[in-house]
Amino acid sequence: MQGFIATLVTIWRLASPYFRSEDRWPGRALLAAVITIELSIVGITVLLNQWNNRFYNALQERNWDTFVSELLFFCVLATILIVLAVYQLYLNQWLQIRWRRWMTNAYLGDWLSDANHYRMQLLGDAADNPDQRIAEDIHLFVDRTLTIGIGFLSAIVTLGSFVVILWGLSSLAPLHLFGTDFNIPGYLVWAALIYALAGTALTHLIGWPLVGLNFNQQRYEADFRFNLVRVRENSEQIALLAGEQAEHDRLRERFGRVVSNWLAIMTRQKKLTFFTAGYTQTSIVFPFIVVSPAYFAGAVQLGGLMQTASAFGSVQGALSFFINVYRTIAEWRAVIERLAGFGQAVADAQAVAVEPPVVEIAAGDGAVIALKELAVRLPNGLPLVNANDLEVAAGDRVLLTGPSGAGKSTLFRALAGIWPFGSGTIVVPKNARLMMLPQRPYFPVARLAAAVAYPAEPGTYDSARVAELIAAVGLPGLVARIEEEAHWNRILSLGEQQRLGIARALLHAPDYLFLDESTASLDEPAEAAIYKLLEQRLKGTTIISIGHRSTLAAFHRRHFALEREGDHYRLCESQLEKSSG
Q: What is the Cβ-side half-sphere exposure of residue 221, based on CA atoms within 13 angstroms?
């Protein structure tokens, strides 16, 4: 029972924000319209149940006039029912896409807000494959919530409507067994209730493992799809390493999980279908078995028999709602768990950025970046880099060196405000614009001009200006492709990508530019040309570089080094040694 209540609370937590959002009034209106139509359909079903009595009595009595009038009445009800069914589907789908659009935007906002997506990865795989959860699980949640919710409401209203009818019919057609009438108040209702409860209990007993199996199936499918994308994105490296067989084996292993879990679902669904199919077929004749003794005893006419069977079927169908949608509910619960897990992972990543101890980014009134009692740690709490009372003034040129794995890039991440693990304060001048250029820059699949201008909106910068900078960084051959849309990270060499990264920095002209081995794939003369270009074009920009080449010293005026101190590294300023070459 606690698990059921917890699931309802989770559903409410996931669903209710939309109906309190800025789109709440259209959403509420559409939901009300869908519910009203569903209730109208139930009302028409009640009218059709009464029609059964009159129509089949007319057949039994061979009453032509009543037969014709009832046919016309049926045509009117059927027409109304068709119109309602069409608009219920239309309005339901309209509500689905509005709801899904709002949830998708909300989840994307939470995921991509303030580097949250990055911190979620650092905290572990608590929410695997966020792409699948946002693209597929939200769609399934909205669809299944409306399907099951409206269906459950319909079952409740149908049950309430037809229980009254069936209770009255129980007195008109008393239970007749072995030539004796047994006056059991509402016996038809009790028969339907017992039949449905027995079926529901057995269905749950057989089908409950489907919840976990469906959860795993979605996860395995997403893992397999993700690794296929990884192979496509890294095809060059795989080809160079002749790693096709290794990738094939790895993909086959992941697909093996998909297959084995699917086979488990097949086995469980086979057992469930055996029961539910048998239950459904038995449901067709069960009401006739219960009522037919009274009919053959002459206690009820054919119309009464058909009305009773129809009402019995409606009550039994309403009570059997759980049975009929069990597989959908199993899939729905798996989706709910995945979305709830994703939401929790988002909340955890948000919390780790603000709950002490954290690396605090403070706005300063001066023109320097200052490190005060800074202790950068790994996500597991192990110490990495300590720094204190170090400042970088406006216009400085600083070279940062240290052993591989000492935490140079992590220190940059802390300066960028995306690495909260640790303590201390980083003071950044108020309204200062910082830009980080990693060793492998990112370019969206877009026109080359837009890819270089990223993250600015397309059209923010003049294409001619972008083209001039592309030529300036040594890529004149790409100028003619400025309007071409392509996957630039895939088709350009790493050296070309690094040149475009420098073009991006020149275009944005930040106040502080952090170069994390951003020219490491260029030869020394090309690297020197790039740094001279930065000196000419970004005279007022503070540049802090991570690098291992001694030739970089010529382009910097200060030197920070990471030196081993016990179980961590300390950032210290040291003498800059200029290369004699």
A: 13
Summarize the confidence of residues 80-85 as an average pLDDT.
94
d(CA 504, CA 442): 11
Contact 494, 457 (CB under 8 A): no
Q: Which sign, positive or negative, has the C-alpha torsion 43, 47, 50, 56?
A: negative
> Tens digit of pLDDT for each residue in 455-467?
999 889 999 999 9
**Do residue 366 and residue 342 come from a single domain?**
no
Cis peptide before 357 (omega within 30 of 0): yes
Rounded (5°) CA angle 287-290-291: 85
Tell me the average pLDDT across 80-101. Answer: 95
Residue carrying structure tokens 């395995």: 220
Could you tell me if residue 238 is inside a domain? yes
**Which residue segment(s) compose the domain that 524 sits in?**
360-574
Residues 189 and 206 occupy one common structural domain: yes
Q: Are the C-beta atoms of 368 and 393 separated by less than 8 Å?
A: yes
Give me the number of domains the chain comprises: 2
Are residues 330 and 414 part of one domain?
no
Outline where 173-243 has alpha helix (H): 187-207, 210-233, 235-240
- Whether residue 376 is contained in a domain is answered as yes
User: Tokens representing 351?
Assistant: 């919390």
Q: Indicate if 289 and 417 belong to the same structural domain.
A: no
